[in-house]
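During the first year of the project, the team set up a workflow for recording each protein of interest as an amino acid sequence followed immediately by a discrete structure-token representation. This format lets reviewers and collaborators read both layers of information side by side without switching files. As required by the reporting guidelines, we include two representative entries from the current panel. The first entry is reproduced here exactly as it appears in our internal archive.
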Amino acid sequence: MSAHPPAGPAIHPLVDQLFTRHGFAHVDADSLDAFAAAPGHALLVFTEDPIRFKETLDLVVIAPEVVRAFAGAFRAGALLPADARKAATRYGFARWPALVLLKDGQYVGAIDGLRNWEDYVEEMQRLLAAEPVRPPSIGIAVKTTGSAGQCH
């Protein structure tokens, strides 16, 4: 985990400001477990390609405001699109971009897609008071063969 992503593909300036101006940790697939495992709450910003998901640029402006509104409540990190896609299945959120809140390395909840400011505040208050839960799964239909309800 580093304060700034390594040189590579161009990062949109608003996304880059999460690291350079707002102090978010750069979290990648290799550092996610270490970042998540630290004690206390952690907020993760899952970014996507801002050309495909224009809402990403809105969320990278909103996320620092969430951090300011809840000053000291959690540490903040962000995943760039390639790493965010790799890690997203762990947390089962339905829409991009997303904020994920962890507590002591365990999933507490996600705020996916864009919301009104009041919704971010209310949901973050609820998540900070909540205990960790199992992340939702993506949902894969399971079919059984034979008679329903029978064990073999």
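The second entry, processed by the same pipeline in the following quarter, appears below.
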Amino acid sequence: MFLLYTADLLQLVKRHHLTPHAYADDTQIYGHCQPSDAGDLAQRVCIDEISAWMKANRLQLNLARTEVIWCASSRRQHLVPTVSVRVGDVLVSPVTAVRDLGVYIDTDVTMRTHVTNIV
């Protein structure tokens, strides 16, 4: 039954031209754009619909664990805006690194944060 629910959620995200990634009790949403279109991408993230879907299926969105990261090559970092993403009634500010399955990913995708934390 849970797989059917997950498939519905993944389709919901795909309808907004975003890429979902789900495992265990975690769902990630990816999108890509030119740096100048970051505001449009932030608007496309369908958090309200996802939250409504989760409530309808007796699940809960954990805002405390919700993170946003804007990635670009180190050459293009100056072009990436610091646009926050609205999650419900909260604005989530972008972070410089996130942890995904034990691997730290930083905004310039150099893995510097991962190496620093592991070594």
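For the second entry, the following points were noted during internal review. The helical segments are 2-14, 38-44, 47-56, 112-118. The chain has one domain: 2-118. Both points are flagged for discussion at the upcoming steering committee meeting.
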